[in-house]
Amino acid sequence: LGWKFYDADDYHSPENKKKMAAGIPLNDEDRIPWLCALHDILRREESSSQDAVLACSALKKMYRHVLVSGVSAIESNQPEKTGENAALNILFVHLDGPVDVIARRLEKRRGHFMPLELLKSQFDTLEPPKAPENFITISLEKSLPEIVLEIEKAIFSG
Question: Are the C-beta atoms of residues 52 and 45 closer than 8 Å to each other?
Fold first, then answer.
């Protein structure tokens, strides 16, 4: 796509990384400042008329809401609608797959702070997106080219 790419894991605080490395799952209190910082990055890209891709485990509906609306999502629990701080237009791509497929991929990952043992906590926290959220669901069991093609179709047809 030629869009700027951000890996949300690069923006975790040292405390969050240390906690995960120790096998301790993050909670909402740990994640909200991180999600607000990610929202700010996406807002900056939008204000520069730049499209961006953010790889992020936005596991809960509330987390996705923070990515779209920033801190106002927490303060008012309502999406921003108008003005300078209007909600961002984000297409969420829910990569869905069996735990064993994801576990095999995590086992191959090297040099990452999140151990395989935290995968269960991720699934326990997961609230898959549903209407009226702006999302598509794609099976992780498809090939990478198939996944990319589905994402491109959704972006350019919507």
Answer: yes
